[in-house]
């Protein structure tokens, strides 16, 4: 059994997270429930930051809030001295309500609406990561109206494919994201931005994918960008002050996943940037990164109650839980794999292999296909590890199931940070059919 962060098995044989017995959590908040190990999030933030500081670099570590966003998480990011990567009006408003310094907010997105651009300018968002010419034209028009002067990075597609699932690989040329380098789109964007009276072009951005376990892809992308920077300096008199290498740093979900430490990813990035800068006689740019999954992914655990079972002799044993693809759609969407344990009997020896089914009316609602467990009983509690990124963030109300609560556990105490959705919450925006239209 692989335990993440502060997780351990206590004298009762129960799983503990952040010094809190998970059975006490389920007693108070029910199931399903997301539990976040706050100390593990703190460790990850310290690891990323320390690597930059050890190398004496100017930097920003921006938490990619799409992984998991709520007011408490954004406040924790602020407490940890992080910047914030947002991609929507909802994420911007969350940052504002959390009291996050908006000058440390970076707005991403491949199809920013006019309303989102106006909102970002009204909130004094610090940096726009510009993705395409349509957005660039809207941003120019709005800054000329408002006289606001945000910083701008140009998102580029460097043509580097990370070793990852095809649906989450975003750095190759054939991508919905960013300005292509090969065709000259990035050159044209620089020309349009460089001498604009309000938009302050600070640098370039790239993101080569997700769940990356080595540094080769990052190094290749940086080298590709520096080959362009040399030319941009000569031809366009543009040398970026900021190089944003994106995120994508992997975590361990299951046996066989072998991610690096945060410090190892960052140190390799820094060394490649320093080498390329020295080789070409360029200033060392400030480096930004955007960890999301690497900050919260393995800090999250979902607790479920086991319900029905089904045994097909010689084929498979099924055990159903009281959640599923409504709180974790990644297995259905990406064939993502997870590990788990009976949280109330964590020391019991595994006796058989079970397929863990969700309760949605979908044959594809399967959380784990082959999980070794002891003989299970109704009301046993299953802990599924590493659900802290893109679990609650992608939760949905399919079959009109309500979304579960979220708690933070740290130093022996637990805090509710997102309440369980009620049935009334589900119906809040529904409107009845007018009687005249029903005749």
Automatic annotation (TrEMBL):
<dbReference type="InterPro" id="IPR009006">
    <property type="entry name" value="Ala_racemase/Decarboxylase_C"/>
</dbReference>
<feature type="domain" description="Orn/DAP/Arg decarboxylase 2 N-terminal">
    <location>
        <begin position="40"/>
        <end position="296"/>
    </location>
</feature>
<dbReference type="GO" id="GO:0030170">
    <property type="term" value="F:pyridoxal phosphate binding"/>
</dbReference>
<feature type="domain" description="Orn/DAP/Arg decarboxylase 2 C-terminal">
    <location>
        <begin position="36"/>
        <end position="388"/>
    </location>
</feature>
<feature type="binding site">
    <location>
        <position position="330"/>
    </location>
    <ligand>
        <name>substrate</name>
    </ligand>
</feature>
<dbReference type="InterPro" id="IPR002986">
    <property type="entry name" value="DAP_deCOOHase_LysA"/>
</dbReference>
<dbReference type="GO" id="GO:0009089">
    <property type="term" value="P:lysine biosynthetic process via diaminopimelate"/>
</dbReference>
<dbReference type="InterPro" id="IPR000183">
    <property type="entry name" value="Orn/DAP/Arg_de-COase"/>
</dbReference>
<keyword id="KW-0028">Amino-acid biosynthesis</keyword>
<dbReference type="Pfam" id="PF02784">
    <property type="entry name" value="Orn_Arg_deC_N"/>
</dbReference>
<feature type="binding site">
    <location>
        <position position="293"/>
    </location>
    <ligand>
        <name>substrate</name>
    </ligand>
</feature>
<keyword id="KW-0663">Pyridoxal phosphate</keyword>
<dbReference type="InterPro" id="IPR022643">
    <property type="entry name" value="De-COase2_C"/>
</dbReference>
<feature type="active site" description="Proton donor">
    <location>
        <position position="361"/>
    </location>
</feature>
<comment type="pathway">
    <text>Amino-acid biosynthesis; L-lysine biosynthesis via DAP pathway; L-lysine from DL-2,6-diaminopimelate: step 1/1.</text>
</comment>
<comment type="function">
    <text>Specifically catalyzes the decarboxylation of meso-diaminopimelate (meso-DAP) to L-lysine.</text>
</comment>
<comment type="similarity">
    <text>Belongs to the Orn/Lys/Arg decarboxylase class-II family. LysA subfamily.</text>
</comment>
<keyword id="KW-0456">Lyase</keyword>
<feature type="binding site">
    <location>
        <position position="390"/>
    </location>
    <ligand>
        <name>substrate</name>
    </ligand>
</feature>
<dbReference type="Pfam" id="PF00278">
    <property type="entry name" value="Orn_DAP_Arg_deC"/>
</dbReference>
<keyword id="KW-0457">Lysine biosynthesis</keyword>
<dbReference type="InterPro" id="IPR022644">
    <property type="entry name" value="De-COase2_N"/>
</dbReference>
<protein>
    <recommendedName>
        <fullName>Diaminopimelate decarboxylase</fullName>
        <ecNumber>4.1.1.20</ecNumber>
    </recommendedName>
</protein>
<comment type="subunit">
    <text>Homodimer.</text>
</comment>
<feature type="binding site">
    <location>
        <position position="248"/>
    </location>
    <ligand>
        <name>pyridoxal 5'-phosphate</name>
    </ligand>
</feature>
<keyword id="KW-0210">Decarboxylase</keyword>
<dbReference type="InterPro" id="IPR029066">
    <property type="entry name" value="PLP-binding_barrel"/>
</dbReference>
<dbReference type="InterPro" id="IPR022653">
    <property type="entry name" value="De-COase2_pyr-phos_BS"/>
</dbReference>
<feature type="binding site">
    <location>
        <position position="362"/>
    </location>
    <ligand>
        <name>substrate</name>
    </ligand>
</feature>
<dbReference type="GO" id="GO:0008836">
    <property type="term" value="F:diaminopimelate decarboxylase activity"/>
</dbReference>
<feature type="binding site">
    <location>
        <position position="334"/>
    </location>
    <ligand>
        <name>substrate</name>
    </ligand>
</feature>
<feature type="binding site">
    <location>
        <position position="390"/>
    </location>
    <ligand>
        <name>pyridoxal 5'-phosphate</name>
    </ligand>
</feature>
<feature type="modified residue" description="N6-(pyridoxal phosphate)lysine">
    <location>
        <position position="66"/>
    </location>
</feature>
<feature type="binding site">
    <location>
        <begin position="290"/>
        <end position="293"/>
    </location>
    <ligand>
        <name>pyridoxal 5'-phosphate</name>
    </ligand>
</feature>
